[in-house]
From TrEMBL:
Chain ranges of the HpcH/HpaI aldolase/citrate lyase domain: 33-197
Molecular function terms from GO: lyase activity
Source domain of life: Bacteria
Cofactor requirements of the protein: Mg(2+)
Annotated keywords: Lyase, Magnesium, Metal-binding
Protein name as catalogued: HpcH/HpaI aldolase/citrate lyase family protein
UniProt keyword DNA-binding, yes or no: no
Length: 346
């Protein structure tokens, strides 16, 4: 592999007109963002044991936390953060939405109390750059007041039609932007999609094979035909991945609500990984193992990528390996795998 080139040169170009990064975004693994309810003492008690076993622990303050428990969740998160050494695991939180009565208290409580421990703040229901500007300015004031030196990064959930329409400007709205997640439940509702599932496919979203023709060339529409289930989320994930790549930030899948269906969960996560996502949410401890497996490149893929890199020498020209053509472009694909493997092994 040529010494001066890395996948980063190709994968995270600085976008024209985008603000210069405030700091280099920490390229720490975040394959599974495991959600917990800090107002639930049973769940909170398990957090110290999860440190080191998951890339990100996220104290959730928004949806799934009852209105009566918002204060308890906020205070619970402060307590957990102050009492826990997170080691290699990142600590994130999901604050309440910007149109809620709780969000100001979320930020003014969390930043002074545990701003030194919080890596990323996830902002739900982001509609456009103005939402990110608001959080960015508020964070700057609160960080300055608290004397924090390390900026807290922002992660936006893409879960409104307007947010999807504005995805590029959201990515570019602040040098604090760390990444985006898909929010399929809120997004489905906002778009008036007719699915009640949280993420995943739908048995009604199909394409059907063409009918066979009889000897006269007439289509037999009554013949048995195979149907193929399609992915409801492909368009949004692809848009999200492009916007993130353009601005050098990280795309993530989101929640997969059918906890029992581990096979379908793995399929959804793998599709997202193949399309460019770096991680996903975990709503149950068993989804952590699925995410860690899926969002790590396979040993075979990494070995192949290293072979291509070695065969390509200075990184230019073309070579034949196992009957397949490799060149400058396929080397770049391989370097993405190698870089991810190295990041995960570090
Ligand atoms: C997540 O927040 C979702 O709405 O799917
Ligand atoms: Mg949501």
């Amino acid at each position: 592999m040529s010494g001066s080139r890395s996948a980063k040169d190709f994968f995270r170009p600085l976008a024209v007109g985008a603000p210069a990064p405030l700091t280099e975004i920490p390229a720490r693994p975040s394959r599974a963002i495991h959600f917990f309810d800090p107002s639930n003492p049973k769940m909170a008690a398990k957090i110290p044991d999860m440190v080191g076993k998951v890339d990100v622990l996220l104290g959730n303050l928004e949806d799934a936390i009852k209105a009566d428990n918002k204060t308890a969740a906020r205070e619970g998160l402060v307590k957990i953060a102050q009492e826990t050494d997170f080691g290699p695991t990142q600590l994130w939180t999901r604050i309440n939405s910007l149109d809620s009565p709780w969000v100001l208290d979320d930020l003014t409580t969390l930043v002074p109390a545990i701003g030194d421990k919080l890596d990323v703040i996830m902002v739900p229901k982001v509609q456009g750059a103005e939402d990110i500007h608001y959080v960015d300015r508020l964070l700057a004031q609160l960080e300055a007041k608290a004397g924090l030196e390390r900026p807290i990064l922002i992660h936006a959930i893409l879960e409104t039609a307007r947010g999807v329409a504005n995805v590029e400007e959201i990515c570019a709205a602040s040098p604090r932007m760390q990444g985006l997640s898909l929010g399929p439940a809120d997004l489905a509702a906002d778009r008036r999609m007719k699915t009640t599932r949280v993420g995943g496919g739908h048995p009604g979203y199909l394409v059907r094979q063409d009918p066979p023709k009889n000897e006269l060339g007439v289509a037999d529409i009554n013949a048995a035909r195979t149907t193929y289930q399609q992915d409801l989320w492909h368009y949004t994930i692809a848009r999200m991945v492009d916007a993130c790549a353009m601005h050098g930030i990280y795309p993530y899948y989101g929640p997969f609500g059918d906890i029992a269906d581990e096979v379908a969960c793995e399929d959804q996560f793998r599709n997202a990984f193949l399309l460019g996502c770096v991680g996903t949410w975990s709503l149950h401890p068993k989804q952590i193992a699925i995410a860690n497996r899926v969002f790590s490149p396979s040993v075979e893929d990494v070995a192949h990528a290293r072979r291509v890199a070695a065969a390509m020498g200075d990184g230019t020209g073309a070579v034949m390996l196992d009957g397949k053509m490799e060149d400058d472009a396929s080397l770049k694909q391989c370097l993405v795998m190698v870089e991810l493997a190295e990041q995960l092994a570090a």
